[in-house]
Amino acid sequence: MYAAFVLFWSTLVAGDIVQDLFDAHNVARKHYGIPEFACLDSQLNTLSQGHADYEVSLGALNHDGFDARCLGVSNRVLCGENTLFDYVDDGSAMTESWMASPPHRLNILNANYTHAGFGVKQSSTTGKWFATALFASANPHKEASCVQSAAEAVVGTSIATTKHHHHHHHHKTHPPSTLQRALRTTE
């Protein structure tokens, strides 16, 4: 019973973190004059969650399978990814960590990315939260699967607060020409 409660509680907290990540990313984009992400995309959430689960199973950050995740985003043209682990279960603090790193900040502030998805999972052995953010541009010929649009989001976070904590992160951006060639050969 206790294990079921812990799993249930962890799932509830993870859902809140995903929402906080979406909101905090949009606050950051707005702060820098970049249009907010048009939508929190369920397909990107699923792909991000799968990768966060995988990282927890390894106990390490990586971008294994990034090309496959990008190709799996059937209604997108460009994509990028940030990963992170932290001991804090706070989407705003995670976003601040990524924003403090120039390569991660570039992914977050890339105006070509119009959709975002997030996955988070806490390691039961270390207590670390692993987070994956997947960003993509819209393909005008296909419809996205928005969980929530930016207009529906209630943004109550601020990037002005600085929290000091231990974190590690990685980023990867798929070069547009490579991904576009790959998409053309798989469609």
TrEMBL record:
Residues 175-187 have a biased composition (Polar residues). SUPFAM superfamilies: PR-1-like (SSF55797). Keywords: Signal. Residues 161-187 are annotated as: Disordered. Residues 22-132 form the SCP domain. It holds the Pfam family CAP. Residues 162-174 have a biased composition (Basic residues). The keyword Signal applies. InterPro entries: CAP_dom, CAP_sf. Residues 1-15 form the signal peptide. This is SCP domain-containing protein. It comes from Saprolegnia parasitica (strain CBS 223.65).
